[in-house]
């Protein structure tokens, strides 16, 4: 008992000393008593008080001592405040009406930043909802508000929230690598709250926004950001080219060769060979196989060559050179006589300005692909989130950006 009395003198429970302690079924119960000369402060106005109105006893959880769970029996005083009337006494280690000490709350916050809520709850023997509520309150208090200060460019993308084509939209500052906003849905209505939160003055500061070929995003940016240029991302355009042109031509050519089983099998099994960039081919054998395939099939040769040439538009150092590369690519695509390629080129025409804008604004959504991978890890660690607001706050906390 003397050891516990000594511990109390180190300020673990400022203003109180240990009056009694005992172990009950592996739980350490510590009864505290207030020092007669302690400084009484009103929790409402913060003024000094001289008298106590009344006292109640409250059971409070604290951090374990030597691996033993700790329950404190704390006398909670209501002081006779001259300004507020009867009011709770302010304690530096225990919040108003709290059943957990600040030490325990801070430990929960530190641990839940790296572990799932369920594991932290099990570690501290707390209910899952208690740990979640602690973390959510901490995030609400510490996450910075949305600010347009120094913000000139944005990047927007969507990610899968749940199975069944349910999506959320994330908006980032690509230069500072921080998440600015996350919201449910990927429609115009869904992303509008971001621009409303940014404000009219903030929207006027935006000069460029990188995105995929999402018409809803583009229309909303044009409505709210009058000086912003749309910048379409290379990855999404080339990915669309792979699905709508290369895959379609490969299937058509395989069907044309249905009577030639060996040739058909070669083309049918060449999907990833054709979709890979030349520099990413796995070994010399793959390069030889690709060269033989393209030499034997003219339609695949045309679509493969134009896929690589399409990427060159994003590599131009000036707007003038980007326009030249665009015009040349469109001319060759329309003259190719490969129906899926011609169809894709015509569909791409309305996106011309956004593709060419990349020469001026060297931004893209590739950083968002990395963000999306980490978002998947956050979601997987928790086995999913039922509270979208909490999930979105966890995402923002994971990407605070660089100064």
TrEMBL record:
All residue ranges annotated as the Transposase IS204/IS1001/IS1096/IS1165 zinc-finger domain in the record: 41-84
The Transposase IS204/IS1001/IS1096/IS1165 helix-turn-helix domain, residue ranges: 89-138
Organism whose genome encodes this protein: Kordiimonas lipolytica
Stored NCBIfam families: transpos_ISL3
InterPro entries listed in its UniProt record: Transpos_ISL3, Transposase_DDE, Transposase_HTH, Transposase_Znf
UniProt domain Transposase IS204/IS1001/IS1096/IS1165 DDE: residue ranges: 154-395
Protein name: ISL3 family transposase
Domain of life according to the entry: Bacteria
């Amino acid at each position: 008992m003397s050891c516990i009395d000594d511990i109390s003198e180190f300020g673990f429970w400022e203003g109180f000393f240990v009056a009694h302690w005992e172990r009950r079924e592996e739980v350490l119960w510590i009864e505290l008593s207030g020092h007669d000369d302690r400084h009484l402060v009103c929790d409402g106005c913060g003024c000094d008080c001289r008298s106590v109105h009344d006292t109640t006893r409250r059971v409070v959880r604290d951090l374990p001592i030597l691996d033993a769970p700790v329950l404190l029996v704390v006398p909670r005083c209501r002081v006779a405040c001259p300004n507020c009337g009867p009011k709770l006494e302010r304690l530096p280690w225990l919040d108003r009406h709290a059943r957990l000490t600040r030490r325990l709350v801070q430990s929960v916050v530190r641990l839940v930043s790296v572990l799932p809520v369920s594991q932290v709850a099990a570690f501290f023997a707390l209910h899952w909802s208690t740990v979640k509520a602690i973390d959510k309150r901490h995030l609400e208090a510490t996450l910075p508000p949305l600010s347009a200060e120094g913000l000139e460019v944005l990047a927007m993308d969507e990610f899968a929230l749940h199975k069944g084509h349910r999506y959320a939209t994330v908006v980032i500052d690509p230069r500072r690598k921080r998440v600015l906003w996350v919201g449910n849905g990927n429609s115009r209505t869904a992303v509008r709250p971001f621009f409303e939160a940014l404000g009219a003055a903030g929207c006027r500061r935006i000069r460029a926004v990188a995105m995929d070929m999402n018409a809803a995003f583009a229309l909303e940016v044009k409505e709210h950001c009058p000086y912003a240029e749309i910048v379409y991302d290379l990855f999404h355009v080339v990915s669309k080219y792979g699905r709508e042109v290369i895959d379609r031509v490969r299937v058509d050519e395989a069907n044309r060769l249905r009577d030639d089983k060996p040739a058909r099998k070669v083309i049918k099994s060449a999907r990833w060979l054709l979709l890979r960039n030349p520099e990413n081919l796995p070994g010399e054998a793959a390069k030889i196989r690709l060269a033989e395939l393209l030499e034997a099939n003219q339609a695949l040769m045309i679509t493969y060559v134009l896929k690589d040439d399409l990427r060159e538009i994003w590599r131009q150092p000036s707007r003038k050179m980007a326009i030249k590369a665009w015009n040349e690519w469109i001319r060759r695509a329309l003259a190719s006589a490969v129906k899926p390629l011609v169809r894709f080129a015509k569909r791409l025409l309305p996106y011309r300005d956004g593709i060419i804008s990349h020469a001026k604004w060297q931004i893209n959504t590739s950083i968002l692909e990395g963000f999306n991978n980490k978002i998947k890890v956050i979601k997987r660690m928790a086995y999913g989130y039922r509270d979208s607001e909490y999930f979105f706050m966890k995402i923002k906390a994971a990407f605070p950006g660089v100064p």
